[in-house]
Amino acid sequence: MRRGLALAWFIIVWDVVEGIVAVTAGLAVGSIALVGFGIDSAIEVFAASVVIWQLRAGAHARQRPALRAIAVTFYALAAFVGFESIRDLVTQDKAGESLIGIVLNVVALLVMVPVAVAQRRIGRELNNPVLTAQSTETWMSNALSVTVLAGLGLNATLGWWWADPVVALAVAGLAVQSGREAWHEAGKPTPAEDHPSTTKDQP
Hints:
The chain has 203 residues and is mainly alpha-helical. Helix content is 85%, strand content 0%.
């Protein structure tokens, strides 16, 4: 429990800093993929807060509304990034190079991959579906880092201006998929619902 809470608090602190840097750098060079990555950091903060809320309560009753709220946030991210990406492709709005964005995503991968591994292991040890779901959220953030790096790298090295909005569309697709998975997970019975006799049949 203590390790799970410590990881959740670490994610909150990390993603607040990461999000501020990503959005600031993205706005500075006009990179919608980088801005979208920063917005994803806010989603990570929200999900980690839900983990803390549940671990402190020690109950599964809060899992369903929390997962549905996360799903809605993913859909909002997908809509924002998708709209901006299509607009950039239609208007041929060229994003500037962002060395800060490239360095940020490399560092994010180095830090957050071990965190995702630790989250998944602790979630399984505790049989806590919310912490396990948060580990999936962290893995998705790592996937976003890879896609953003691809777009920024191609733009910086080859001058492929269209790479950034195309990669941003991939980010939107990942957000939709994660939202669908979170909503589906919220519809599953909680451990308490699977085994009601564990509470009702006690003398």
